[in-house]
Amino acid sequence: MTDIQEDLSQENMFLQTVANALGRKTVLAELPERQEAGPPAFWREQKFEEDQPLALFKSNLEALTGRVAIVRNGAEATNQIKLWLKVLNAKSAILWDHAKLREYIDSTRLGVKTAFWNRDTSRRELIELAEQADVGITWVNYAIGYTGTVALFNGENSGRSVSLLPPTHIAVMNRSDIVPTMSTVMRILLERRGQGALPSAIDFITGPSRTSDIEMDLSIGVHGPFRMWAVVIDD
């Protein structure tokens, strides 16, 4: 048997195994018709209890070595971040110049040198500030319970470098912005696209940076932060 014949034989065996698992006697000769696009109806229509999205988000992010603090207001959120900065022995932090972040977090009380990512500073200087900061602090547009993921909308006052370059990323969010599944966020994005209101870029971040592409050896913090912690304001 030639190498090509052996490859085809293995491919047929693999496809037959899949067909058997799906309850079919033989491999389909033509593509099956699919009536719907995106996630199947049973997934889109599943119901969640009111507290489930937060509980799922907390357990799933913590399973990835993240930390989740649930607070009642901006003053408690500021205190929590100040405590974490002290634990980290942080000297500096860079924050998005975001209206919600300024509303809830009193940067003058954090006890470290702070800088804001905004349009008034040159891009080169902002990247240098992010590179040198111990912590990057962002505002979360949506968080996804099922995966422990945060979705960040980027713009001129909310640069990606803030969540990418410092060794620790602290993400702040309202509880009401935690949704059950990724498909919920996708529906919202489709609505925003119809309104011409999509951001310039969207980051989906699930826990600290991790990779195993070199000999399957898991490494943390190679391509981004070592730590990804979250503060949830129970609004």
UniProtKB/TrEMBL annotation:
Residues 55-233 form the LUD domain. InterPro entries: FTHF_cligase-like_sf, LUD_dom, NagB/RpiA_transferase-like. It comes from the Bacteria. This is Lactate utilization protein C. It comes from Sporomusa sphaeroides DSM 2875. The gene is lutC_2.
